[in-house]
Amino acid sequence: MAAAFSSDGEAALRRELCTAVAAAPRSDLDGFYEMGRAAAFVRDGGFRKVALQFPDELLADAVQVAGGLEAATGAEMFVLGDTTYGSCCVDEVAAEHVGAEAVLHYGPACLSPCRKLPVLHIFGQQPLDVGRCAEAFQELYPEQQSRVVVLSDVVYAHAMGELEQQLRPEYPNVIFSRLVWGDPPGPAVPGEERKFGRQFLVEAAGGLQDYAMFYVGAEGLALTSFMLTWNRCPFSSFNPSTGCGRRETLNVNRALMRRLYLVERARDASVVGILVGTLGVAGYLSVLQHLRELLARAGKRSYTLAVGKPNPAKLANFLEVDIFVLVACAQNSLLDSSDFYRPVVTPYELELACNPAREWTGNYLTDFRDLLPGACAHVELPPAVPAEEAVPDVSLISGKMRAAHLCDPPSSQLPPSTALACRDQTRALAEISPAASFLESRSWRGLEQQLGQTPVSKAVQGRRGIAIAYEDEGCEQR
């Protein structure tokens, strides 16, 4: 674990970039990036400034694509060089920095609804051997009456129509999902599933648990999220890169046990850090406020942190935090925190830990919008229970007693006697902060200014180079 916090940097300098998405074919950039559809979107909307968001794997084509769209539309194109969080989410924050009126999002996407700007998703039409995919499906499901739902990575969605034409005559009970994004047009009908930007209608009397799932795409976060969410369905997959189909052997029960262990860690926590993992998904401000209120009712202190893309080194700076909760899109919320100094949970897992009215039913939720009031999975907080009437609870990890009841909602203003205190004899007032109190207890509190104690000296030229090897290090050694 120590290597995750610090290193000499040489590994980062010598690391080769491994692309998870195949590069665009150089001979057909117009087809791969759907230049005609993109130009029509810009012209029809009357946009004069458009932001182009590429994943790292496709940035090499950004200049050529932007030049072609400017020539076709007359609009000004801005390429977003780096995303604030995950490349699957639309980066509205970076787009607003240049005053963009719309966003063209290229590559894989989580299809989370956005809040402000119009968005056109262009996934990139990755090649798919439809004939080999159909053969793999037939090998995995030899019974033609099998009930199967076909899901796909967004980069292969363009070929699902052809695959359906090949399978439908022999498999009458196969269901193909379709991609949808934005707000739904209306309430879902009975048997309809709308998750992860996919929509399909289940017609079996027993519901979705009577179906198997067939996923077209490589192994990754999307497949893991599907398997945890629809954990009662057996999964198979076809990897277009290798041309092989297989039955997925991920131990879903073991993965869920790991997540439930994190729920128990969240129950033991006293200080919770709320990590802002998205600024573009609709409803993220509402869920932040919902989590703050939930933690306050549960008697836990919370701090909201915006650190960009989380990594072990960043989060290790917050030693006073017992556990983190990540507010991100459904595809990026399942963060593997095994290398982190403190665990990272999802908003749903935090609700399981802090809301006594929410019970584990076997249905796992990764979309935080499902927890908000008015959503399908919202559970109201029960009334507060006096401390003397609360049923005691014992931690399954430490074996210690802990409070499991909810407190009364905090008042809008704290009493002055608890919020302010006299700091010195001059009657200057200082605000009492739990975080500041914790910082005072540390032996090392960061760099001190020492104003007036440091002698003034002339500025001199510093060392040149990088920290691993400065230019003058060789002379000093001799």
If you had to describe this structure to a student in words, what would you say it looks like?
The protein is an alpha/beta fold and 478 residues long. 27% of the residues lie in helices and 17% in strands. Helix 10 (252-268) crosses helix 13 and helix 11 packs parallel to helix 13. The chain is globular. It starts with a helix and ends with a helix.
Largest sheet: 5 strands, mixed
User: What is the percentage of strand-forming residues?
Assistant: 15-25%
Share of residues in helices: 25-40%
Helix/sheet category: alpha/beta
Q: Give start-end ranges of low-pLDDT stretches.
A: 1-6
Distance between the termini: 36 Å
As a whole number of angstroms, the C-alpha radius of gyration is: 26 Å
Summed over residues and divided by their number, the pLDDT gives a mean of 81
Number of helices, counting only DSSP H or I runs of 4 residues or more: 16
Global geometry:
globular
The count of DSSP E runs of length 2 or more, i.e. the number of strands, is 22
- Arrangement of strands in the largest sheet: 6-5-10-11-12
